[in-house]
Every structure is written in C-alpha cells, then in structure tokens.
Amino acid sequence: MPREIDNYRETKFAGRNARLFREWEMIDQRCENDEQVKYIIRKRNDVGLPIVYDIYLTGIKSVIGVEEPDEQGLQRPIFGNEHILRITLPNNYPASDGCPEFKFTTDVWHPNIRYFGDYRGLVDIGCGGSHNLLVDYIDRLIKYLKYEDYWAQMEFPYPQDWEVAQWILKQAEPQGWIPFKQEENNV
Known about the structure:
The protein is α+β, with helices and mostly antiparallel strands. It has helices spanning about 15-30, 135-145, 160-175; strands at about 35-45, 50-65, 75-90, 100-105, 120-125.
C-alpha cells in the first residue's frame, strides 16, 4: 500500500520546500521500521509539506515525574513509556536563526526539558540551523528520555529546569536511580 509521502516524490521542490521534503523523507524512513517511533503530520504549508509533526515514542522507559517525599525526604522516580514530541518548524526554517521548536506534550522529568512553568515540555536542544537534521534531533531526544544524555550541573550549557536538575544531583544520582535500564514492560 503506498504511503502518503509517495504522492510527493515526483514533485520538484526548490529552496525551503526541498529541505522540508528531505526532512519528511528522513523522518518517514526513520519511523518506517521502528515500532517505537511513529509520526503524524499536524500542520502543512501551502504545498502540503509538513511544518508541524507529532512524534510518538512508545516503549521507551523514562522518568515522567517523582513521588511525594517519603519519610527520609526522598522522591522516587515515576516511570512512563509513552511520549509525544511536537516539532514545529518556523517560517524561516532552515535558516540559522530558524530553529525548530521541540516540545513534549506528555510529561517528561529531565533536567534539559522544562517540567515547571509556562514552557512545560520545551526542550532547548541547541539548534544549529541548517546543518542539523530533524531525525538527528529525534535520536538525541530519545537519548534524553533514556537518560543516556543529560546535563544537571549549574554551568554551561545549563539545565533547562533547575528543580529537576537538583533532584538529579541530590537524589537520583546518589541513590543510583539514574541511569536506569531499558527493560521491556517494566515501567
């Protein structure tokens, strides 16, 4: 059965639209044979190319919050394994100042993803403009979810959420909760 993207393969795109199509192809290929990573298109531009994606990440164990403090003041992690990442491409993408917005619409407790405040779910991933590909960002954010990549120190590049970073430094690392293993169906 032909996929939707196949309807666009014969079209000759130029400029920004060529890049948007290339990014779509790469996301489609990335998701095609990976049961843990799927996508849907939330919004398109005037020629039908994606400018807002929802990336569904399933079966990837991650911390989604913490329990209330116990009698020793420890807040144990709460794990989840279903996450939705929204990628929004601004009108000036892929220019160097046209950074995509990466935002989790589901809870993620990670020092480099905002958990508290108005920008909940927002990821500051250090956009490098036209040289970085969306699939590379997706793979990097999967590493964030698995806690294979995180920064909790109060020095450059600085955590996105200081409260989560403090929990990492004062509780999760000393207690051995971080890093954790990716065990199937053991959330």
